[in-house]
Each structure stands twice: as C-alpha cells, then as structure tokens.
Amino acid sequence: MTDPSTPQLVRPLAVGGRVVVRHRLPDGSATDALGDLLAADATTLRIATRAGEVVVARADVLAAKPVPPPPARKGPPHTAIGTDDLERVMAEHWRPLERVDLGGWRLRASEGFTGRANSALALGDPGVPLAEAVGRVVEFHAARGLTPLIAVAHPDGGLGEGTELVDLLAAGGWTVRTPTAVLTAATDDLPGAAEVPLPAGMRVETAPEPDAAWLARYHDQGLPTVPGAGRRILVSADEQVFVKVLDGGTTVAIARGSLSPGWAGVTAVETLPSHRRRGLGRRVLAEVADWARARGAASTYLQVQGDNAAARALYAGAGFTVHHAYHYRVAPQR
Q: Taking a C-beta distance cutoff of 8 angstroms, is the pair 201, 247 a contact?
C-alpha cells in the first residue's frame, strides 16, 4: 500500500477519503475497518469508523482500498450520495498539484489552471470560525500569486443564499463566478458506442494519456496550449481515458473519462465548431460510458455551466439529471 500522507494527494488511498482496511488482530484473526481515513504516517493509519476511531499499524494491514461514500438517502447510488460526499468524489478526479486541509475544507493550488484546482473547496467545518477560515484562504492563495477563490456547493436553484458562508462572503464583497450544475446518472443506463454510430469517414481512438492532437483540441480554459500544470492534473485521477474522434487526420471531438471507487467522471467534452450537431458529443460520452462500465463504475457524474443550454440538452438526452450545483466566490480586489 502506498503512502497517502503526501499533500499532493496523488495516491490510491487519500487522507479524507473513505477506505476499508483489512488487518490482523492480536489473536491472529482478521477484521475490517471501514470509514474515513483521518491520517496516515509511516507506521499507522487512523480511520474514523461508525464504532469510533481505529488505529491500525501498517505492519498489520492485509489489504486496503478506497470505497465509495455511503448513501445519504434512499435511492440508486448516483442520487443517494450526499452533496458534500459527491464533491469529495469529484475532487479525486481532478487532483490539484498542492492541497492543504483546513478542517473539512480543502485549499488547492495548481499554478492557476482551472478553478477546480485553484480554489478552496468549502465542505463541512473548517475547524476555525468562518471569518478566520476565509482569511486563511486569502493568505493561502495570495502566497501563491493566485486570486482567492472559494468553491461553494448548494442545492440546484439559487446560489445557496441564507447559508452562513454564502452570506458572509456576499457581505464581504466576494463576487459570483461560473454557476455550475452537477449531473449524475447510473452508468448502466447511459448509451454505449454501439448505439451512437459515427458519420461516414470518422473513427474513434482512446488512450490512457492525452496526445498532442487531444491537447490541441482542449480549449476549455481559453488557453492556446495546455500548460504543464494542466497536463499533470489531466492524469491525476486513479485512472483516466482520453477519447478523440477523427475526421480523416483531424481531431474533431474529445472527452476525458476518469475513475474513482464506484464513480466515473466526464470532463473536457469539446467538439470542433464545424462538426457540431452531428452526434459527436453523444459518441464521446458513450465511449466514456463503455470504458466506465468495463471498470465497474456504477455511477457517472459531469459538470456543466448553468447557462450552457446546448450541453445541458445533450447530457439530459443521454440520461443525466441534476444532483446539485456549485459556484465560485472571488475575493474583492484590495
């Protein structure tokens, strides 16, 4: 088992994630510790289980693996998961270059590449008064030359008004950026590639890493090229697949699939403007769904800007429904 204590969190077991650890007992028998991994060092693992905190010596570990979060309500896994737990799942699909925890909050930095990797993910209790936590975020990002940014998850509809954090940020002049809907689906319900034929003359290629043609088509951040930080983030999940549709020798559509226990994620869905409305978006989604099914991911999520009507129609047609929403709050200029 690899060491999950690094702050960059690029390990199979991540501190803060849900795990099951099978370990020896003093009498020689074995048992499982299931819960959240609180801490890990060279000799022990600390796990918060339903029965209380368990400390397991690494020398006694027989097997260990990450597992999906528990359901928060009745229903299939993709709807039963709670908002904070799904946010934690998604964070493991787009890991930052640097992460510092503040209670339940995650302070992230990645040289400015994407809001997801350069914001504080405000989940649960930061362990200090909210005003102090916000100040810590400002200090963290300012020290790295970044604009302070806080990601706030909330129910779909509105911007989380009436919650203590949102009201505090609004009163402090933090402005709203990129309202986003989080959509989920049962992976088995998503169309497969066999159901979404390509136009004549086109073909699909997939690979575990993005090649130059895939990277050249990825323009989500409005950058002419993907920087080194971006390339590291794109391959930061437990596993990923890069899908591209080619028309002759030209890459005309792309998508990225990613994997964590029980979940697949879909990001970077883009189609060349000249090739839109030809079913290519549906096809790259289907390719990711087939890949996810082959790896046992029961649920799939994706994120879409709230005002992107065309993309939302595409995803709804494939079977995705809204789970919750989030947006960023941007610190006022000083």
A: yes
| Spatial distance between the Cα atoms of 230 and 221, rounded to a whole number of angstroms | 10
Beta-bridge partners for 148: none
Q: Is the pLDDT of residue 195 over 50?
A: yes
> If you compute the radius of gyration of the chain from its CA atoms, what whole number of angstroms results?
21
Domains 18-66 and 185-321 share a fold: no
Q: Biggest alpha carbon distance in the chain?
A: 68
Residue 27 structure tokens: 């009498």
Q: What is the mean pLDDT of residues 226-250?
A: 96
SS3 5: coil
Question: To which residue do tokens 């995803």 refer?
Answer: 315
Angle between helices 130-142 and 164-171 in degrees, nearest 10:
60
Confidence bin at 71 (pLDDT 50/70/90): confident
Residue 109, Cβ density class (10 Å: 0-12 exposed, 13-18 middle, ≥19 buried): buried
Q: Which two tokens stand for residue 204?
A: 């699909």
Sketch the domain layout of the chain as residue ranges. 18-66, 77-180, 185-321
Q: Average pLDDT for residues 258-279, to the nearest whole number?
A: 96
pTM of the model: 0.85
Cα atoms in the Cβ-side hemisphere of radius 13 Å centred on 327: 22
Q: Among 251, 323, 259, 253, which residue's Cα sits nearest to residue 77?
A: 323
Strands 149-154 and 175-186: unpaired
Whole-angstrom Cα distance, residue 93 to residue 48? Answer: 23
Q: Residue 152 corresponds to which tokens in the numbers above?
A: 């706030």
Q: What is the CATH number of domain 185-321?
A: 3.40.630.30
Tokens of 128: 């200090």
Domain 18-66: give its CATH code.
2.30.30
